Amino acid sequence: MAISNPSESSRPGIITSALFQGWEKFLRVLPHFDGSAALLIRLILAPVMIAAGCEKMHGENWFHSALDTFPFPFNVLPAEVSWNLAMWTEFVGGICLLLGLGTRIFAIALAVTMFVAAWSVHLPNGWAAVAPSQPPAVCVPESAEYAAGNAWEHYVHCYNVNERTLEAAKRLQKAKEILRREADFSYVNGMGPLVKLNNGIEFATMYFAMLLALLFIGGGRYVSADWWLARLRKG
Q1: Most exposed residue of 32, 66, 127, 223, measured as fewest CB within 10 angstroms of its CB?
Q2: SS (H, E, C) 165-197
């Protein structure tokens, strides 16, 4: 009868124990890095908001023509007031997000700004920020693939496709045909393919979700002015 080596039989148990110990050490250290997610979100959002505020500072007030599409109570405010509120909220809020100062307060203010923008400007255009250049055949109502497709296939492949983006794709193809015929298309289409802006709610919705996350998690441990100010208050 073969006699097993005790060291060999206990080896899996030793490995498992070491893995559990390593995992427990990782979990003890992990909370010290919980601010990294908030920092990353802030670093993504801050330049976007600052740039949007600067653009309004140097741009014309188009809120006059869009005011009737704003949700209540923003549609009852004068266009100049709404413009300045949006401009300073984006500019100052972006700077404060970068510093992690008043993170939750500015997350709320900027989330409201994103909601108003999505509702009044982007919602009529559907989801996609950029129109799909070549919509799948299953998304084209006139195609056999569309007729054969089921609801799940239509959802998975066509969530960012609507009548507007289908028409945009046709116009984009027309523009490419003209460029191929009249210009150096390889040069024009270089550094990234030509696309057609759809201006849907995609980006505004993502920014809103990121701001909502900051509302709950704050600016982040070690990496925000809010955290250090809280430590100073506690003495």
Answers
A1: 32
A2: HHHHHHHHHHHHHHHHHHCCHHHHCCCCCCCEE
How big is the chain, counted in residues?
235
Cα–Cα distance measured from residue 170 to residue 155, given in angstroms and rounded to the nearest whole number: 21
Confidence (pLDDT) at 61: 86
Nearest to 75 by CA among 90, 93, 86, 63: 63
A 10 A CB-CB count for 19 gives 10
With beta carbons less than 8 A apart as the criterion, state whether 74 and 86 touch.
Answer: no
Cα separations in angstroms, 67 against 106, 116, 200, 207: 23, 11, 18, 22
Taking residues 152-170, report their average pLDDT.
Answer: 92
Angle at 28 between CA 26 and CA 34, to 5 degrees: 85
User: What are the pLDDT digits (tens) for 19-71?
Assistant: 778 788 877 877 778 899 999 999 999 999 999 999 999 988 888 888 888 88
Express each pLDDT in 91-111 by its tens digit. 999 999 999 999 999 999 999
d(CA 218, CA 152): 37
Separation of alpha carbons 104 and 114, rounded Å: 15
Q: What's the Rg (C-alpha) of the chain?
A: 26
Closest by alpha carbon to 195, among 130, 134, 137?
A: 130
